Amino acid sequence: MIQYIEKAKIKTDYNLKIRNEFNTSIAKSIREDGVLSPLILLADFTLIDGFSRFNFSKAEKLPAVVLEDRKKAFFTSVQLNMLSNPYSEFEKARAVKLAVEYFKIKEEIVVKELNPLLKFSKKLSVLKDCLNIFKLDKGLFNLLESKKSPISFALLLTREDRADQKLLADFFKEKRFSLSRMQIAYDLMYYIRKRESLDFAKIIEKCQNEDFFSCLERLRFPKFTELKGDLNSILSRYPGYINFPRDFEAGFLSFSVKIKGKDDVEKAQQVLKSIKNDNEIWDFLRKIKGND
User: At what angle do helices 162-175 and 138-146 cross, to 10 degrees?
Assistant: First the structure.
């Protein structure tokens, strides 16, 4: 049942706000038509859904549904939002956190009843993974949320210590990387660190005077990068198709070229032979392309 509640009586606790930002598109609608969708309030008039409507409205009274059952109020709020404007993955995680910490909803209820509303990937351990991402450095957390990062990527970054998390956040923000570029950069840097015993700061310093991703590729696959350059110097003189992927984890080397010069044929054969004889490169290529 919809009631009209005095705005001054409504309690706001912004720790209960699931969406990270206010929906400014609602402002125009409110100015023209007023508040059409009711707020959802707990029995003590604590606001749990409709923060944008509450903040943008100048009306003295607002339409609201007051629900005595706290769990029902929370689930109703989640369900309505998922139907009208689905949460991002970080917002879904915040909903899980609220369910557990504020509404004291039991774990089995979160898994069996809340999870189907939020529609998480089956690969996630809903409760554990959602709570873990809130352990991230605040700057990194905010950056990932603003980029609409999947929880899976955020979880990878939780394995880093706080200093490295802050360093990565500052660097990614400075470079204005898209989410996909952040993912590629971190993946390459992670394996370079393992292989070369360089920390993230040293890797960034090492690549500061050249194209960052070209540098990472060279450090991640040094022999592959060298042979790629050799092969490209031969094949680029002929018409045809050549593909050298920027992201080696997602792409593969392929080419279709008709080589006329005998010397170039022999050079190309030698480079391809070098690739085949290098176990690391060959295993890498076979993993993503097969034995072709």
Answer: 40
